[in-house]
Amino acid sequence: MAEVVLKGQIRTRLGKGAAKKLRYQRMIPAVVYGGSAGPVPVTINPVELTKVLGTGAGENVLITLSLVGDGERVATVILKELQRHPVRGAPLHADFLEISMKRKIRVQIPLQLVGEPTGVRNKGGFMEQHLREVTVECLPGAIPDEVRVEVTDLDVGDSVHVRDLTVAEGVRVIDDPTRAVVSVLIPRAVVEEAPVSVEEKPAEPEVVGKKETKEAKEGKEEAGKAEG
Predict the structure, then answer these.
(1) Residue 107 contacts by C-beta under 8 Å, 6 or more apart in sequence?
(2) Domain of 48?
């Protein structure tokens, strides 16, 4: 991985007011962690930082940070955290981690899917990506830009897991090896069940004639009893 140079200045004024003033001057506050001297507040040009992060390595790029003010200092750092404006997306604050090229670190690496699964191309399946990045451990000089995942041979029902990922020598993926990275699944058919038609039996009409016949019969029986 290539290193890039970023210039900065050591800050002496701290607090919200000072940070606001910096942004008004089109600069942003930042902090460098991990050094022997403890956290070092610095000032960074956000335009230059955006250019640095626009390289192929993205936010994992190794940065040679050249600082001036209250003594000069040069440190190799990696971006730890970047706060952006919620609407414009412009950098607002950056945290850097000073690293040693001889000591392993852990970083998040994006996954890049390669190819079109045969289960999608020939059998109407669909591909679902479960992980977008993985955590790897390696020396700073061995940090990969991405981890490529070959999916061309995946059939319906097949998956690629973390344990199946291929990385360079000296790079170790530390995520759970049983986690699925990408799968090819069968589309879920939407079955619309038609409402079951229940034929209701028509109510049996009241047979008036039968009722009258019964009542008439009962009346005749009562009359006969009275005459007797």
Answers:
(1) 60, 78, 135, 136, 143
(2) 3-99
Tell me: do 92 and 8 sit in the same domain: yes
Tokens standing for residue 61: 């790029």
Residue 190 lies in a domain: no
CA distance 77 to 192: 58
Q: Same domain for 31 and 84?
A: yes
Q: What pLDDT, on the 0 to 100 scale, is given for residue 222?
A: 55
Written as six digits, the tokens of 116 are: 């079109």
- pTM surpassing 0.90? no
Name residues of the chain where pLDDT drops below 50: 190-194, 206, 209-212, 226, 228
Predicted local confidence at residue 220, as pLDDT: 53
Distance CA 183, CA 185 (A): 6
pLDDT value of position 129: 97
DSSP result, 2-55: -EEEEEEEE----SHHHHHHHHHTT-EEEEEESSTT--EEEEE-HHHHHHHHTS
